[in-house]
Amino acid sequence: MASVTTVQAFTDEVRTIILKRQRGRCVLDGLIATTGHFHHRRPRRMGGGRDVRVGFPANGVLLHTKCHDWVEKHRFAAICKGLILYAGEDPEKIPILTWEGWRLLVGDESLPCEPPDEYLSPRKLIDGTGPGSTDVSGLRAQRSEPSP
User: Fold this and answer.
1) E-strand spans in 41-98?
2) Which residues 6+ apart lie within 8 Å of 85 measured at CB?
3) Residue 80: enclosing H or E segment and its boundaries?
4) What pLDDT, in 10s, does the model give residues 52-108?
5) Quick one: which H or E segment has residue 5?
6) Which of 32, 111, 117, 120 is the most exposed place for a label (fewest CB within 10 A)?
7) Which pTM was predicted?
8) DSSP secondary structure string for all residues of 94-132
9) 114-130 burial by CB neighbour count: b if 16+ within 10 A, else e?
């Protein structure tokens, strides 16, 4: 997969683990990712730069270029889905909402799990019942677009 953008923090071994774990599919839409990005759930600039876990398989997912752009443009929704983590959060302990449902990424495995209580579920974010969701009109419009 030479057309997949690589980032220095992920070794070739870790990229191979991510590809195998996701079966070469984008974590959001489930389509085969012939082009895309190895995305850091906890970016180095958000407190991950000195933490070796930033390069661990649980911190990485494969995204189509379009899906990666969506994550970068819709950061709050991406945080709610576990696609972006804050400094100090352990990627092996924070589930991610994938095309297969909620998953916990542990080592080279993707394990089914329950939605996390401590995060806003995307449903609560969209219907306006979650804390901090007083103005979700922009997010509703975004969800009506064909997006992950």
Assistant:
1) 60-63, 96-98
2) 41, 42, 46, 59, 79, 91, 94
3) helix 75-80
4) 778 899 999 999 999 999 999 999 889 889 999 887 888 999 999 999 999 999 989
5) strand 4-5
6) 117
7) 0.72
8) S-EEETTEEEEEETTEEEE-PPPSSS--HHHHHHT-STT
9) eebeebbbbeebbeeeb
